[in-house]
Design brief:
6-stranded mixed sheet; 4-stranded mixed sheet; elongated
Length: 610
C-alpha cells in the first residue's frame, strides 16, 4: 500500500545504509593500518637507536612509515567527515519518510508564537501537537520558520505573488537534492537553529569612539615604529623614546581591554551561526540553475560574483578565529605585548561588521523565503497525489469547489474523500449529523486545505478552486476559557468577531467555519439565536459552513436559495455503529445519542426514539 515516493525513500535509505556500511568497514580497516604504521615507526626508531650498523636504513624506513601514518590520518579524517555527512543525509531522508507516513513520534517538534486570538491558528491545527506546521517545517533558520507560519496564517491576498510562489514551490518540488543539501550544509555545522535576530543583535554593538580604529596600513606603520625604536634600544642608544612609545601602547591596550573582550565573546557566540550561514550561502551561490527561473530570481542576491555573501562570512569567520586566542590568557597577553593583535582584528571586525549589518537582513530574508518554499515543496513531493489549487480573483468567481477533498493530517489509509461546492456571497452550508459522524473533521478539512491553497502549497484534493478568503473559525473554545469567561460568552465573542469581519465589504469575503453553533446554551435559546445569527450572515460579505445538532435550525433553508443542507450519517451493524464519513445533501435523517447510551449500557427503552 506504499505510494511511489515512500518506495523511493525506502530504497534510497537502503542505498545510503550500504554506503555507510562500506565507509564503516574502511574506517575499521584504517584504524588497524594506522596502528600498524605507528608500531612500525616505533620499532624502526628503536632499531635506529640500538642497531647502529643499519642506522641510516632504519631512519629512512622510520620516515617512510611516519609519512604513511600522516597520510592515513589525513585520509581517515576525511573519511570520518564523509561518514558524518552521509549519516546526516540519512537522517534527512528518514525524516522525509516519517513526514510522508505521518509518524508523529519521530517528527521534530518546534514551538511557535501566535496571538491567542488568531481567527483560526488553533482551531484548524495549524500549530500545536500533530499540527500542520509540525508536519511542514523543515527549515533550519528561525526566519524560514517565521515565513512559513506567516504564509499559512497571514496570506497576502495577492494573486500575482501567489502565482510566483506556486511556481517556486513547483521548481523546488523537482529538486529534492537541492532541498536536502540546504539542510545538510546547516546540520553538518550544528543542529542548532539559525537565529537571524540574535546574529543581528550581536553585530549591532559597536566599540566606543575613543578606542583607536586603525587600518591595516596604520597597524603596519605602528609595528614598524616599534621595531625601529626597539632596535635603537637594542644597540644601547637612548631608550627614552622607545620607553614612552611602549608605555603608551600598553596603557591604551589595558584601558581598551574591557571593551575589546566583549567583541571576543560576541565573535565566539557567532562562530557556529556564521559558519552555518557560510555553508548555506555557498550552496545557494553554486547550485542555482537557469532551468529554475523563479528560484533564480528569489536567490538573485546570492548570484553577484563581485559581492558573494559567503565571502563576507568567510572574512568575519577568520576574524572570529583570530580573536579566539583570548580564550588562552597567557597566549593572548604574550601576543599583544609584542604585536597589536586585538586592535588589528577588532578593527577588521568593525569594518566587516558595518558591511554585514546592511546586507545580512537581505540575505536572511532571501534564505527565509527559499526555506519556506522548500518546506512546501517537500510536502508536495511527499504527497505526489495532492494538487496545486486554482485561486481566482474575480467577483463572479467567489466561492469554493473541491473534488475528492480530504484532511492532510489524517493517514492515507484512513482518509475519506468528499466533493464540496459553495458559491456566492451570503451562501451558507448547514451540516447536520450524529455524534462522531465527521462534521467537525470536515470543517477542519475545508479550512486547512484553504490555508494551504492561499499559502502557495498543494492541497489534499484532486481539484480545488477557490477565491481569496479571510478565514475565521469557531471550533475550539477551550483557549478562550483561560480568560475566565463562561463557555457560552466566549463562544459569543468568537461568533461576533466573525460577524464584524463580515461587515467589511471592501476586503476579501470571510470564510466562516462554525462547529455546533451556540452549543453553550439551552435548546430553545440556541435555536432562536442560531436562526437570527444565520439570517444576518446571509446579508454579509461572507460564505460559511455551520454544523448543528438542532434540526429545527435547518428549516431556515426554506427562506432562500443561498442556504444549503448537508449531512453525515451512520449505520448500526451487530450492535456497533459504523460511519462512512460521506457528505450527503439534505438534512440528517438519523440521530445516535440514545443509541450510544444504550450501547454503553444505559437503561433507555426503544420507545424514547419515537
Amino acid at each position: 500500500n506504499m505510494n511511489k515516493k515512500t518506495v523511493y525513500l525506502c530504497r534510497h535509505l537502503q542505498r545510503i545504509d550500504q554506503r555507510l556500511g562500506k565507509i564503516k568497514k574502511l574506517d575499521s580497516l584504517l584504524i588497524r593500518w594506522r596502528l600498524l604504521f605507528f608500531l612500525l615507526c616505533f620499532i624502526f626508531v628503536l632499531l635506529s637507536i640500538f642497531h647502529s650498523p643499519l642506522r641510516n636504513a632504519w631512519f629512512f624506513l622510520t620516515f617512510v612509515f611516519l609519512g604513511g601514518f600522516v597520510v592515513l590520518v589525513i585520509y581517515h579524517s576525511g573519511l570520518k567527515k564523509k561518514e558524518l555527512r552521509w549519516g546526516i543525509y540519512r537522517t534527512i531522508k528518514e525524516l522525509n519518510l516519517d513526514r510522508g507516513q505521518l509518524d508523529w513520534g519521530r517528527i521534530p517538534q518546534k514551538e511557535y508564537t501566535v496571538f491567542a486570538d488568531h481567527p483560526y491558528a488553533y482551531d484548524l491545527d495549524i500549530i500545536g501537537k500533530k499540527s500542520l506546521m509540525q508536519l511542514l517545517d523543515t527549515t533550519v533558520s528561525s526566519r524560514g520558520s517565521k515565513f512559513l507560519l506567516d504564509w499559512l496564517l497571514y496570506p497576502l491576498m495577492d494573486l500575482d505573488e501567489l502565482t510566483k510562489r506556486q511556481k517556486l514551490v513547483t521548481e523546488l518540488k523537482k529538486r529534492s537534492l537541492f532541498r536536502d543539501r540546504l539542510a545538510l550544509e546547516a546540520l553538518y555545522v550544528s543542529e542548532r537553529e539559525i537565529n537571524g535576530q540574535k546574529i543581528l543583535a550581536r553585530l549591532q554593538t559597536s566599540l566606543p569612539s575613543w578606542i583607536p580604529k586603525l587600518s591595516i596600513w596604520e597597524i603596519i606603520l605602528l609595528v614598524a615604529v616599534g621595531l625601529f625604536l626597539g632596535g635603537w634600544y637594542w644597540f644601547s642608544l637612548p631608550p627614552f623614546w622607545w620607553g614612552i612609545f611602549y608605555f603608551i601602547y600598553i596603557l591604551i591596550f589595558f584601558l581598551s581591554l574591557p571593551y575589546l573582550s566583549p567583541v571576543f565573546h560576541r565573535s565566539i557566540s557567532l562562530q557556529l551561526e556564521l559558519k552555518k550561514l557560510q555553508a548555506i550561502f555557498s550552496h545557494l551561490e553554486k547550485s542555482i540553475s537557469s532551468k529554475a527561473p523563479e528560484l533564480k530570481k528569489c536567490c538573485a542576491v546570492f548570484q553577484n560574483k563581485a559581492n558573494r555573501p559567503s565571502s563576507y562570512l568567510r572574512k568575519i569567520s577568520r576574524v572570529c578565529d583570530a580573536l579566539s586566542i583570548q580564550a588562552n590568557g597567557l597566549v593572548h597577553l604574550g601576543v599583544n605585548l609584542f604585536f597589536p593583535w586585538d586592535f588589528l582584528f577588532v578593527c577588521y571586525w568593525e569594518k566587516v561588521r558595518g558591511q554585514m549589518i546592511e546586507a545580512l537582513p537581505i540575505w536572511l530574508e532571501c534564505l527565509g523565503k527559499v526555506e519556506a518554499a522548500c518546506a512546501l515543496a517537500n510536502f508536495a513531493d511527499n504527497n505526489r497525489h495532492f494538487t496545486f489549487p486554482l485561486i481566482t480573483n474575480g467577483p463572479a468567481d467567489i466561492g469554493l469547489t473541491a473534488k475528492d477533498l480530504s484532511h492532510p493530517l489524517i493517514p492515507t489509509k484512513e482518509r475519506k474523500l468528499n466533493h464540496f461546492e459553495l458559491k456566492g456571497l451570503g451562501t451558507l452550508a448547514l451540516i447536520t449529523g450524529s455524534n462522531m459522524s465527521g462534521k467537525s473533521t470536515f470543517l477542519k478539512t475545508v479550512g486547512i486545505n484553504l490555508c494551504l491553497a492561499q499559502a502557495g502549497g498543494v492541497v489534499c484534493s484532486t481539484f480545488f478552486q477557490s477565491s481569496w478568503f479571510r478565514i475565521y473559525s469557531c471550533i475550539r473554545i477551550d483557549d478562550s476559557l483561560t480568560e475566565g469567561l463562561s463557555y457560552f460568552y466566549a463562544e459569543v465573542k468568537r461568533l461576533m468577531k466573525i460577524f464584524q469581519a463580515a461587515e467589511d465589504n471592501h476586503a476579501s469575503p470571510v470564510f466562516a467555519l462554525v462547529d455546533e453553533i451556540f452549543k453553550g446554551t439551552n435548546n430553545r435559546e440556541r435555536i432562536i439565536g442560531s436562526t437570527y445569527y444565520l439570517r444576518s450572515l446571509r446579508k454579509k460579505n461572507l460564505l460559511g459552513l455551520i454544523t448543528t445538532h438542532d434540526l429545527e435550525v435547518t428549516h431556515i433553508s426554506k427562506e432562500g436559495k443561498n442556504i444549503h443542507n448537508y449531512h453525515f450519517q451512520e449505520t448500526i451493524e451487530n450492535r456497533k455503529m459504523k460511519f462512512d464519513y460521506r457528505l450527503r445533501p439534505g438534512i440528517c435523517p438519523t440521530t445516535n445519542a440514545l443509541q450510544i447510551l444504550r450501547l454503553e449500557g444505559m437503561p433507555i427503552p426503544d420507545s424514547e426514539d419515537k
